[in-house]
Specification:
Blueprint (H helix, E strand, L loop, with lengths): L20 H5 L1 H11 L2 E7 L5 E6 L2 H8 L5 E2 L25 H9 L5 H5 L2 H19 L4 E2 H6 L2 H10 L8 H12 L4 H22 L5 H6 L2 E2 L2 E2 L2 H14 L2 H16 L1 H8 L3 H15 L5 E5 L3 E3 L2 E3 L4 E4 L1 H5 L34 H16 L3 E3 L20 E5 L1
Parallel strand pairs: 2-10
Antiparallel strand pairs: 1-2, 3-7, 4-12, 5-6, 7-10, 8-9, 11-12
The chain binds protoporphyrin IX containing FE.
Length: 406
Amino acid sequence: MSSGTEAGGFIEPSEFHLYDQTVNDDFWRQVNHLRETCPAGWSNGPWSEFDSGFWFFNDFATVQKVATNWREFSSAEGAAPMQFDLDIMRMIPLETDPPMHRDIRKALNPFFTPTALKEQEPRLHAIVDRLMERCLTKAEGGQVDFVAEFTRRLPPLIFFEAFLGQREEEIGWILEALETLLLHPERALEVAPKLMFWEAEIIESRRAEGKRDDLIGVIAHLEVEGVELDERQRVETFNLMILAGMETTMGGLASVAWELACVPDVRRMLARADEKLLDSATDEFLRHASPVPGAARTAHADVEVAGCPVKSGDRVLLNWASANRDPKQFPEPDELIFDRSNAASHVAFGAGIHRCLGNHLARREVKAMIRAVCSLSSFEVEPGFAPQFRPSMARGPLSLPVTMAR
Ligand code: HEM
């Protein structure tokens, strides 16, 4: 998708789409300009293969207000800025409203609390160390692509090892399938059915065992208001569990790694930071990068929002990225300010009932990478290196060639 905007020009609000290649190639300049000149408005851009035209909200206050109003702004008709056919695949619980959403989150939340994740901490650090060692070996005497060797590897390894009990050597084909989905989405039909077949088999074997105490066991027995999910819904839930934390966290890690590679003095400062400052730096990096730039809702009422006459049935885009750079919420929003008092109020993980289930896990992964990278004596990109981004549900540099040394 490309709007054909002149180089250096700004996209017209009526043509705005988060996945427009012109917007992506010049992301923050375009997004900041749009928020400043048109905080809320109507775009004629597409939101599915067949439909176009949506309201967009760019400022922090409006994005928060709509995101926390699930009664009037539903996710059940889709939550992606470019909507897949929900009859083919629904992302559960993302594309559901209460009561279904409430019951599923209640069952899944316990696996992703800070207390539950504390147990996984040694495993996370072991995986980070393993990947860093491989990167350092590959970088000897040259460059290594930190995206290919680290940021695209960490999220699947931690999720499959820690949550699903699968070892790296067992899941080679899954890592390859995820890589294909990520880098060649046009080939999704080649790999997605195999992945979903594997998911269905694992769930059914848990049901046969009657095992309910691990994540798959809970998904295998999910109920909504006392009625079990059907087989397809169980697979759709398991599938989102796997995919929701992949491209998103990979994009976040890659963006943060790129920022770190550009600022040696920040790395030196963070190498000496205490836990509190590292936590706040992690949030500040995520605010600044906004790996998931937006989400969609469908209005279930006629309601005026920021002066826009939204009608029931209208599609609405929540621009998380723009909200995260709103100077009314974050003074000097384009700067990284690690001791911002409200760093954690960002909407990189969304807001309201759908706020990211895996946010504590993602934060821990990003923090562990920051710690590991900042402990190196060097981690550099070529001066002037400009990474490529692909318009997608989650943004992050597609590659990051670095030199690095212990
Ligand atoms: C930096 C990494 C991540 C970012 C930026 C991110 C971002 C988001 C955002 C913005 C939403 C809200 C979408 C909406 O409101 O429509 C969301 C929801 C979700 N995320 Fe994440 N995410 C990340 C990592 C993860 C991880 C590691 C998991 C692991 C399970 C995960 C699982 C989910 C799930 C299941 C939902 C749906 C929650 C619901 O509908 O209640 N995410 N994420």
